[in-house]
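Notes to self after the call with IL:
- keep both proteins in one doc
- input above output, always
- annotate only the second one for now

Protein 1:
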Amino acid sequence: MSISVPLKAALSGRCGVCSEGRLFEGFLKLKPNCDHCGQDFTVADTADGPAFFVGFFIMIVLAPFYFILPAAEIPLAAKVMGYSVVLGATVGLGYWLLPLAKAALLNLQIYHGAEQAQFED
């Protein structure tokens, strides 16, 4: 199986093994296993990885606007409207990208057989 299969499945919130079963039972709550192929989703844990990558991406893309708006010589009403638009874009991008990132990282962990670190006694 090509690495593009789990990534394509992640874009639609599907299992990276069979591309049929759904990954989520809520907004970000994963199902315990795939309804179609039975793949166990508890073998991989994305932890805070998706939130870090999504937050960092949004910061890189939108942070300049938070610094440019105060320096812009425009009326106060335009600045407030600009901040409202940028804040809406920040929240909207976060809600849109977070499930995609979580699905992609989970599918890639399962594809590569990655597990949590375990310390030996």
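Protein 2 (the one to annotate):
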Amino acid sequence: MSVREIERNKKYQIEIVLGYNGGTKIRHYETFIGKKSEAKLREYELKTMLRDGSTFQKNNLTVKDLSMEYLKYQKDILSPKTYINYEYRLRLVMKKIGYVKVKELNVKILENFYHFLRHGYTSARGKPLSPTTIQSYYCIINNMLVYAVKCEYIKNNPNSKIDKPKRAKTNIQFYTPDEVEKLITALAQEPIKYQAIIMLALDLGCRRGELTGLTWKDIDFETRRVEINKTTQYAYGKIFEKGTKTEHSERVNYISDTTVQILKKYQKQQLKQKLLLGSKWQGSKRIFTTEYGADMHPDTPTKILDQVIKKHNLKRITFHGLRHTNVTLMISKGIQTQIISRKVGHSSVQTTDRIYSHFFEDEFKDVANVMEEFLTVRTN
């Protein structure tokens, strides 16, 4: 509990710890305008209310106040990259409806805000927001209002009465088997590091952050076994390590012998570079590093693939398109959906079906031919 001066002899921020959510403190923040002695009295009043089990009356709490309080609450919970996303989204929320008192927030005000996102707002690049981005705003606002209900600032969450915006339909970019062959042929002319990055991503079907998070301890060359148990993200000018996207994303995988041989060559080159630099080597344990041995920026694999595509005039796909390519190749060979889902770390088989349903169309049509074998009467 504390009273912090915001504006000399005029404005103060009062902080009260309401309780804990797991190991995280739930804090109540209140801005007080007046003398410090009066702010201290208000702090005492709040402490007394907390001790007696009374509900804090925050009649003048605005959406801006709640947004700032919610961001402080989430600071130690969210990953740095996710926190930046929350911070960025709530900045616009505060700008458009920050003046609204939380107790007066209703479905109509929120619907008008979502209408503005759909039809009245453009990104920094001059483009309208995608349905996926609008859904992101919806989820953050919803989470914030759930927090407000938990803190008993409001009794009900008006956002829960609004239909959740649908995500944009996934535009799956991938390479066909012939295009994969062209990519691999082109890679043979590229540095071994480029070969290792693209071949491992293609073989594992992993996410970009999972790839840059891998360490040499995660790979067993003898068994061709790979453990995917972490990712790296870039935020606040630094590279952070965090857990995988979901519980199911943490998994054991296996790679081809071709990829193993490329990785062995790359490892030898990396060791030579380490010996050459000596004390200048920065000591990262990652498989993929900078030339000075620091952790690789998660955006670097994308830049490498873009460079290879442009140089060899290949079809343009995103780096995530290598993951889609991995899945579509498995589907074309009749690999079971459960195995595909397990390999790429989807949260469920239903996720795999939802994203790649149209790729299973040929297999679905072939069911009739299979049934024909059982239903046709054989004659001698």
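Annotation: Residues 257-277 form the longest helix (21 residues). The mean pLDDT is 88.
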